[in-house]
């Protein structure tokens, strides 16, 4: 396996390590075979060991809870932009496909239409407001 040359008290030794298994090594010193036990120093690691406290898990609360809906539908902004013109107000009845407002996005005017029949409960924006994608614009009941 590996060959070494040792000098101990002026005497030279040719050492061949034939096999190394755990703490035992089979070596040959000047033609004579030996089984030797190797004592190794335990090296301290430089990497710290992370110790995290155990978290108790209460299985009763692990189920997903459904939120109770107030039956209103949230109409959300399809992309970022600004509200150019509002065509309907709170309390107005809308049909599916009615244009509620016009939104300017990417230098284009986009019609924001109702996706269901109902009544506008809350108007969350006003003309000139900037909105991000998925911001709630209108609640329809």
Please characterize this protein's 3D structure:
With 141 residues, the protein is mainly beta. It has 2 domains: 36 residues, no CATH class; 68 residues, OB fold (Dihydrolipoamide Acetyltransferase, E2P). The protein is built from no helices and 12 strands. The strands form 3 sheets. The chain has a 4-stranded antiparallel beta sheet with strand order 1-2-3-4, with no helix packed on it. A 4-stranded antiparallel beta sheet has the order 5-12-10-7, with no helix packed on it. A 4-stranded antiparallel beta sheet has the order 9-8-6-11, with no helix packed on it. A hairpin with a 2-residue loop joins strand 2 and strand 3. The chain is rod-shaped and about 105 Å long. The mean pLDDT is 84.
Which short descriptors sum up this protein?
single chain; 141 residues; mainly beta; OB fold (Dihydrolipoamide Acetyltransferase, E2P); 2 domains; 4-stranded antiparallel beta sheet; 12 strands
């Amino acid at each position: 396996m590996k060959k070494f040359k040792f000098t101990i008290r002026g005497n030279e030794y040719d050492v061949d390590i034939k096999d190394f298994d755990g703490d035992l090594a089979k070596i040959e010193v000047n033609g004579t075979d030996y089984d030797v036990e190797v004592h190794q120093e335990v090296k301290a690691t430089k990497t710290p060991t992370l110790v995290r406290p155990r978290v108790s898990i209460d299985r009763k609360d692990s189920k997903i809870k459904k939120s109770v809906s107030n039956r209103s539908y949230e109409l959300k902004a399809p992309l970022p932009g600004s509200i150019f013109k509002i065509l309907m107000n709170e309390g107005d009845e809308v049909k599916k496909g009615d244009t509620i407002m016009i939104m300017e996005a990417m230098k284009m005017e986009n019609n924001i239409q109702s996706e269901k029949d109902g009544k506008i409960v809350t108007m969350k924006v006003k003309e000139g407001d900037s909105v991000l994608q998925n911001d709630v614009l209108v609640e329809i009941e």
